[in-house]
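Q: A reviewer asked whether we had any structural model of the full assembly, not just the individual parts. We don't, so I'm hoping you can provide one. Inputs are below.
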Amino acid sequence: MTTLYWEEEIETLPRVGLESIQLTRLKHLVARVYATVAPYRAKMDAAGVRPADIRSLADLQKLPFTVKDDLRDNYPFGLFTVPMDQVVRVHASSGTTGKPTVVGYTKKDIETWAGVMARALTCAGATSRDMIHNAYGYGLFTGGLGAHYGAERLGATVIPVSGGNTKRQITIMQDFGSSVLLATPSYALNLADAMAELGVDPKSLSLRVGVFGAEPWSANMRDEVERKLNIKAVDIYGLSEVMGPGVAMQCLETDRGMHIFEDHFLPEIIDPDTGEVLPPGEQGELVFTTLTKEAFPLIRYRTKDISRLIHEKCACGRTMVRMEKITGRTDDMLIIRGVNVFPSQVEHVLMGVEGVEPHYQIVVNREGNMDTMAVRVEVSEAIFSDEVKNLEKLTRKIQADIKDLLGVTCKVQLVEPRTIQRSEGKAQRVIDNRKM
Amino acid sequence: MHVEQIAVFLENKSGRLAEITATLAYHGINIRALSVADTADFGILRLIVDDVESAKKVLKAAGFTIGITNVIAVEVADRSGGLAQVLMTIEKARLNVEYMYAFVNKSREDAVLIFRFDDMERAIAALQQDGFTILSGEQVCAL
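A: Here is a predicted structure for the entire assembly that you could use as a starting point for your response.
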């Protein structure tokens, strides 16, 4: 099999050449950010670093980290480096306490993003002849539009089907001849089950490959998707703060790791406790510096995703380092059906309901192929009623408020007092029964 | 004219009802009447007992969530049509029954109907006007 590249020269550039590009871009980035963004300048001044101190890639370690709180403190546009008239699009993801994280893109950023996404799709073997079925959600979430622009850049035909309406999706796959599926892995399994129910044989479809991301999925799940849909399943990585989908992508030649598009996103692996950069190949927290983004660049952004970098040469010929599938988080963030959920957000909702005490527990399960979230709430005398309808009204209200804030439908379960473990040191707020 | 009812929150797990009744029995509290309202996820146990204060104390101490609600106890003859007559009065007065349950008092050969209405005061007035006997808390306890 011949490897397809989108930008062969840069994708297969010897490391020394790549690192030289990275350094040039890094210097330029640091100088620009220092000059234009007050919060960055303040942090660098506090750390005693000047743009001129960045003389090698190793000097990156001198720069302070950027964390999610920095984004929240400068909500909504405080970390943008260009005037708003140059910002052509914003995306947002839900924050930990209600305020979302907002990211912005210039016209050039959108082009860069489409470019890396086209690269990613090419890694999966997609070409301009493909019919790309994009089932990522369109909207503030970066998944839908990010993948869409990349597929268009590739020159493929995009079906902007978005999420939901599974039966119609299957009809479209049959009638339009969808050949590449972009979706969360759990939605892909959902599609497979719906096909089985409708008596649609996946072998009768033109589907060849699936590009799956936006939520953690195990090797077992990969096997299941491949078997049930009769396709090759590949992994894509991205996060809205850094760009969106297309930060890293698995190629067809290996199932070990995803190539990070290092000419745009410079990765580091750090010890989450000390912040020290770890030796090559060690597992730790993934940190990204965006080398080319204009509107919303990030310096040493801590993703809180746990991974490791794979430096061995890949059979596909790409010289870009690979990152291992995310194996965990340094915080308590959960991903439910592609949506980021922090227990603190659930707590925030519960505190807003009169009489509800802060004794709750989140139980996550995978039922069939769908992640389900149940919130167990203790019934105090303040919220108890002798009438069923009042208690049901209460559970519906909590459910609606959580749906409003988080965009996730959950089940609210009332439990007897003192049945949820009390905080002794670290309270067990989350029981995740999914097998990753 | 009101009778105090104890409502207890019950998770749907086996043995909870037995624990409540055992707790009451251990403290010598007698249950006059009870009903359970249940959903797929939880239940509400409603109790009329002979010693409300003690029952409240011991159930709370045992870790249950309880609530006290005023209900109306109507005494009717234990024969065919006893309940129907009461409900006709309710219907005539356009009152809504939130819930009801009943028990039979063997010694006096009559039945006691426990009601919770949306408008308790109007219900008492309507029932009294039609000549029904409404029992006080003490009377129910003494049955």
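A: Points you may want to mention in the reply: The radius of gyration of chain B is 16 Å. Residues 24 and 55 of chain B are 7 Å apart (CA to CA).
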